[in-house]
Write a structure and sequence with these properties.
13% of the residues lie in helices and 43% in strands. A hairpin with a 2-residue loop joins strand 2 and strand 3. The chain has a 6-stranded mixed β-sheet, covered by helices on one side. The chain starts with a helix and ends with a strand. The longest helix is centred in the N-terminal third of the chain and has 13 residues. The chain has 100 residues and is mostly beta strands.
């Protein structure tokens, strides 16, 4: 699964229509993504495989607790937090999230 995410991220990154800067480790940022799939939950944690974002690109958005009920496939997610290092893709650890 991780390899698929990396391959898709590389394909999207090479397409000029998706060419945006990558978020940097440690950067505090608010990222907006169009949700193309559901949020995944495990215990008190959640994650969303993003493969994009604006103003910079992330591969995954993670958080604690539950996301708002409005965070469903087709919605726009706005997540605010800090980018953390990962060996294969960029992760945003969200402190705040809203969907509309």
């Amino acid at each position: 699964m991780k390899r698929l995410v990396v391959v898709l991220a590389l394909l999207f990154a090479s397409d000029p229509a998706f060419a945006q800067r990558q978020c940097r480790d440690g950067e505090k940022v608010t990222v907006t993504v169009k949700m193309n799939s559901a949020v995944q939950y495990r215990d008190d944690l959640w994650r969303y495989v993003a493969l994009g974002g604006s103003p910079c690109t992330v591969g995954e958005i993670t958080g604690k607790g539950k996301t708002p009920e409005s965070c469903v496939k087709g919605a726009t997610m706005e997540a605010k937090g800090t980018i953390r290092p990962h060996p294969t893709f960029i992760i945003l650890d969200a402190d705040e999230v809203r969907c509309f």
